[in-house]
Amino acid sequence: MTTTNTMQAVWISSFGGPEVLEIRELGKPIFNDDQVLVRVRASSLNRADLLQRQGKYPPPPGFPPEIPGIEFAGEVAEVGASVRQWRPGQRVFGLTGGGAHAEYLVTGERLLAEIPANLSFDQAAAVPEVFITAHDALWTQAALRPGETVLIHAVGSGVGLAAVQLCRALQAAAYGTSRTADKIEQAKPLGLEDGLALRENFDDLEAAAQQWTSGKGINVVLDLVGGPYVKASQKLLAPQGRMVLVGTMAGGSYELDARYMLSRRLKVWGTVLRGRALEEKIEVTQKFAAEVVPLLARGVLRPNIDSIFKLAEIAQAHARLESNETFGKVVLRME
User: What is the pLDDT of residue 4?
Assistant: First the structure.
């Protein structure tokens, strides 16, 4: 099937700063018998979009390198002949390898989840990347259990705030770090037990973790920062503790110390969503739909929005995310 109408989309005209972003009129994408055409109503920005704009993080094969965007919320516009799960008009959200900063995109039917009735499109757009990442890292990979302690670096980020809520929903105790004390305080109503404004002195973090856990150590570290945070976190982990590496904002090189790794039998691994095989992406989406979406529908979990920009304000939206002053998601409304 093909469509001939046009759509508005963000376009990376060249690699560089926010000024290289344009809004262009393009043809709607072509979709196959087993695919869904989604009318995107809102999307959100992620670090991947900033890196793609800079020429440092190309999308996976098959996705447009000039159109950023890896998450979306919208309505099913049309479905392929073999699609059975969805029908036109249903509200859906999900992740994609790229191209979400456009009025239309094409995706597979098993890569979609239905938006709960209590969420607007703006709110729904702030959900997929952060909640799927945090849910997969904590509930699935780290096998977080009730009563365990979790330390989240960059707790004021979108993934960090989702992780706090998922810890509370599982009755695990969440602690966090941030570069500013105000983000620690803002995260407490979402379930953060305590936290530490951290810049350079990691000795303060070790003392805080000892106090939080009564000397038992942290069970799980969700590291969204990287660099020196990884080295410091090893000292904080309890025996058989787990550390999941997600971000590299503070650097991509990690130093592991055998004194802690071996004697405490620690487990450390990295994770990424965008580069996974299709079946793996389907699996995390289906688990998200089964375990997270019902909690969103009941209000146990909620999206956190920092700011909302119109499509024509895409450069300002990128500048806002790059400021590192955000608390929650930067949402792009397709108007």
Answer: 54
User: 67 phi and psi, to 5 degrees?
Assistant: -110, 110
**Chain centroid to CA 112:** 16
CA-based nearest residue to 87, from 74, 78, 96: 78
Sorted by sequence, the CB contacts under 8 Å of residue 325 that are 6+ apart come out as none
pLDDT at 324: 86
User: Which one-letter DSSP state was computed for residue 96?
Assistant: -
The CA angle 96-32-30, to the nearest 5 degrees, is 75
Enter the tokens of residue 136.
Answer: 């997969």
Give the rounded distance of the alpha carbon of 282 from its chain centre.
Answer: 16
Ranges of beta strands (E only) in the chain are 6-12, 21-27, 35-44, 71-79, 91-95, 104-108, 112-114, 149-153, 173-178, 192-197, 218-223, 237-245, 267-270, 305-310, 329-333
Task: Report pLDDT digits (tens) over 182-227.
Answer: 999 999 999 999 999 987 778 899 999 999 999 999 999 999 999 8
DSSP label of 99: -
Task: Give phi and psi for 131, each to the nearest 5.
Answer: -75, -35
Hey, CA dihedral for 51, 52, 58, 59, is it positive or negative?
positive
Measured from the Cβ of residue 33, the count of other Cβ atoms closer than 10 Å reads 10
Asked whether 175 and 194 are in contact (CB, 8 A), the reply is: yes
Query: What gap in Å lies between CA 32 and CA 43, rounded to an integer?
Result: 23
Residues with active-site annotation = 57
pLDDT 10s digits, 152-167: 999 999 999 999 999 9
What confidence tens digit (pLDDT) does each residue in 230-259 have? 999 999 999 999 999 998 776 778 889 899
Of 259, 228, 260, give the one whose Cα is nearest residue 245. 228
Percent of the chain with pLDDT over 70: 99
Cα three-residue angle 147-295-160, rounded to 5 degrees: 60
* CA–CA dist 62, 158 (Å, integer): 27
Dist CA 208 CA 79 (whole Å): 53
Give the per-residue pLDDT at 2: 42
